[in-house]
Amino acid sequence: MATKSRATTLLGDLTRNLMTHPEKIVEVVKDFPEKVKENGGRIPFLTEITAVYYAVKDPKTPFKVKATLAGALAYFILPTDLIPDFVAVFGFTDDLGVLMLVMRRLGAHVTDEHYELARRRLQGEEQTSD
Asked: How many domains, the chain?
């Protein structure tokens, strides 16, 4: 339970920072593809987090929603989250928890179009890595 509240606190801090400094959302979006490239095969929720990436990029997404979704992406990208991503089996557990929390509140803003873009992108990456 303590891990969840620390993750929630960190997500809140990231979101507030992004709302205060919206230019940092661009940095989060820029850093996301590299994280996926490095870890894609080990991320069980890759389609969902990639759909969030497309929602953040979407100009129709309201700013507060965009900042919160970008906060979840930033948490995912950070190398210093609560459970390091390289830890076998558990490495992305905290990232998934943060994603689930955000999606429970804001999932309606991650549209079918965002999921379709995510699937197409990931299919293209699988084909190019073969």
From this structure: 1
